[in-house]
Amino acid sequence: MARKDKKEEKLKMKMVRIYIMGKEYKVPEGLTIMKAMEYAGYRYIRGAGCRAGFCGACATVYRKEGEYKLNADLACQTTVEDGMYLVQLPFTPANKATYDVNKIKADDKTLVNFYPEIARCVSCNTCTKACPQELEVMDYIQSALRGDMKKTAELSFDCIQCGLCAMRCPAEIAHYHVAQLARRLYGKYLMPKAEHLEKRVNEIKRKRFDEEIGKMMKRNIEELRKMYNARDIEPEEEEEPKREGD
Amino acid sequence: MHPASIQGEKMEVAYYPGCTLKTNAKDFEETAIKVFELIGIEFKELDKWYCCGTVYSLATDNLMYRLAGIRNLIRAKEEGYEKLLTLCSICYNTLKQANLMAKSDKEAMEKINAFMDEEPDYDGSVDVIHPLQLIDKKFYEIKERVKKPLNKKYAAYYGCLLLRPKEVAIDEYENPSIMERLIEAMGGEAINFPLKNECCGSYNVAVNREAVIERTYRIVLNAKKNGADGIITSCPLCHFNLQEMQKEVKKIHSDFSGLPVYYFTEIMAEAFGVKNEGR
What is the pLDDT of residue A4? Predict the structure, then answer.
């Protein structure tokens, strides 16, 4: 009985045609590209990760029937449409510079020295159009070219390193690697240091909390639970009244 | 800080810096912003801008190299500007020629507009200007601002990119005189300088240094023989070639003694008494 219901449900389900590397399949409407490929019988060994749009492993390129435009997106985030031509890009063969971030300087020539290809940018904007995160990719490459580390780091902050920008670039720039170097340098050398963090790390190093931790380690789970529920929650200092007044 | 005797309109103008002004030619940008503000012209840097493309491509069928110029002009228009000012001679030339194409080559613009389908169509309506073109209008303000008259002899070096092709020239393309007028307005003497519009050799410095060394020798020697104490320019690449290649010239011609090379805004800052101020 249950089986029959399922079958009927399947019959009612609207199916769409997709082309995986040129071969036609019929898959249920509403699936993501990733699930549709699995439905069609493909098994992901590479090119799949978090399945939630964060890891950047499932770069995919597709074109819709009757359109000339190539679209780039993440397979786990994009729903199949009737007449989609699909291919997966599990890896991008882009050059990655080798460096020891502790030994390099963050000046206005660092990025272009490690990635001289950025000087080949002609402002075609294809990278920006390819980005599934909707970043202003061309703008951060242009910032990198003029040595603006802060802007490059900020504009590229949400990059998930899927590599689609690099695959579409006529100037063969490895955008996402350039941006990663910029963020590393910006974080290490240019961003203001968090003083409270340094203070706390020093306290830990001076073993200020060791005794307390040692005591806790000896307790059983029930005691820990009680302690947790009865813990002091520190009142917010100073800022609290200000916030209420906002 | 100065008497309110300075009249004339205050104006704001959209400013396109270009990559070099943010890196190797920071002195040029810093002095320019400062001295032009003193004569009532405020530079408003575009929110978004891209490398100009470095050289205007002479291959008429390769439109890919025209995209950067046009896209910068679209940004200026988008921000509501009808004029776009840039300091670097190379950026000026590239953007000016890109706009010239936008106005005159319909077929090319159809292709470019179709390719840049994420942008509004561009019609060539942003006028690209060089700050030297504003000098004549600000003569009075310049003279008023001079605290330390220059009292030196300068060779005004234009190079090619402010003058060629003649359609983009900021002045008489065979015998320009804007920079000479600027020098004289600030109490300096502009020397007669026949090689003021000779090419410095440009990017050949990367592939054919000997040619640039030879040119530097001829140009600097010509300025020197005509009595110059220094050379002024508006081009970071001319500045680099004429300044840096003098060391190489000395290796070949031991009797050669060089000349300092300045951006025209540096001698303005000097005359206005604001050089190295706030740095």
Answer: 59
ipTM: 0.88
Give yes or no: residues B167 and B194 share one domain.
yes
B153/B223 same-domain check: yes
Peptide bond into B176 cis (omega under 30): no
Q: Cβ–Cβ of B71/A122 closer than 8 Å?
A: no
Mean local confidence (pLDDT), A9-16: 79
Average pLDDT rounded to a whole number, residues A109-133: 97
Look at residue B65 and tell me if it is in a domain. Answer: yes
d(CA B87, CA B49): 14
The pLDDT tens digits of the residues spanning A186-197 come to 999 999 989 999
Give pLDDT, residue A243.
Answer: 46
* Contact yes or no for A122 and B48 at CB 8 A: no
User: Which residue has tokens 């019988």?
Assistant: A41
CATH number at residue B72: 1.20.1050.140
Buried b (16+ CB within 10 A) or exposed e, A60-96: bbbbeeeeeeeebbbbbbbebeeebbbebbeebebee
Query: Does residue B46 lie in a domain region?
Result: yes
- Touching B: A residues 90-109, CB under 8 Å: 108-109
Domains and CATH numbers, chain A: 14-88 (3.10.20.30), 110-190 (1.10.1060.10)
Of the pLDDT bands very low, low, confident and very high (cuts 50, 70, 90), residue B204 is very high
pLDDT tens digits for range A170-223: 999 999 999 999 999 999 999 998 999 999 999 999 999 999 999 999 999 999
Provide the pLDDT for residue A244.
Answer: 44
Closest residue of A to B51, CA-based? A142
Residue B278 lies in a domain: no
pLDDT greater than 70 at residue A242: no
Residues B94 and B174 in one domain: no
Residue numbers of the domain that contains B81: 6-129
Question: Mean per-residue pLDDT for A45-64?
Answer: 96
Assigned domain for B141 exists: no
Task: Tell if the CB–CB gap between A122 and B67 is shorter than 8 Å.
Answer: yes
- Nearest-Cα distance to chain A for B116, in Å, is 8
Please say which residue of B76, B99, B129 terminates a domain.
B129
